[in-house]
UniProtKB/TrEMBL annotation:
Domain of life of the organism encoding this protein: Bacteria
Lineage, opening ranks: Bacteria, Pseudomonadati, Bacteroidota, Flavobacteriia, Flavobacteriales
Keywords: Acyltransferase, Transferase
InterPro entries: Acyl_CoA_acyltransferase, GNAT_dom, MshD_Acetyltransferase
Name the record gives this protein: L-amino acid N-acyltransferase YncA
Keyword Transferase: yes
Location of the N-acetyltransferase domain: 3-167
SUPFAM superfamilies attached to this UniProt entry: Acyl-CoA N-acyltransferases (Nat)
GO MF assignments: acyltransferase activity, transferring groups other than amino-acyl groups
Length: 167
């Protein structure tokens, strides 16, 4: 399936929050605590999203019919989770596929698309984090070739840091 990454704009904020809330509901039904703050998001998380939109880091993932299948945040630097790094890398946050499209390989396709673009821009790594309270998600990233290289403790949760070398 051909995917396009369309920049998210500030007027899309409500749609973005709704997508996070729907994902939190799905995750809750799986009895996992991950992302539950999105049900009633704290101001700090809303501001984090607003900042990402202003920095042109958030994208809707769409199919050829321009239907929104999910979203992702792509950064050139991630000081909050990774600190200052020497190697050029691309950082992924908020990778979300709408529930009706789960199980169709879209997450893998999104990761591969980002990896190819990062590799073309001479990035050495693709990096992301996964909430340690969501072991299924951690295993998912490990199956995609990501290696756990650290842990980041933040007030909301503890995150496993993953990277994948872009050979």
């Amino acid at each position: 399936m051909q995917l396009t990454f369309t920049p998210i704009h500030k007027e899309d904020l409500e749609d973005v929050i709704s997508m996070f809330q729907a994902a939190a509901d799905k995750i809750s039904r799986m009895n996992i605590d991950h992302w539950q703050y999105w049900k009633n998001p704290p101001l700090e998380k809303i501001n984090w999203v607003k900042e990402g939109i202003e920095n042109k880091e958030y994208f809707f993932v769409q199919n050829a019919d321009e239907e929104v299948l999910g979203m992702v945040r792509i950064l050139d630097e991630d000081l909050l989770y990774w600190g200052k790094q020497d190697e050029k890398a691309r950082y992924i946050h908020s990778l979300l596929v709408k529930e009706e499209y789960n199980g169709k390989g879209l997450g893998i396709q999104i990761l591969n698309t980002i990896a190819e673009e990062a590799k073309a821009q001479d990035c050495k790594y693709l990096r992301l984090d996964a909430d340690s309270t969501n072991p299924k998600l951690c295993r998912y990233y490990e199956k995609q070739g990501f290696q756990k290289v650290g842990i980041k403790k933040l007030p909301i949760s503890t995150y496993n840091l993953y990277e994948k070398a872009l050979a």
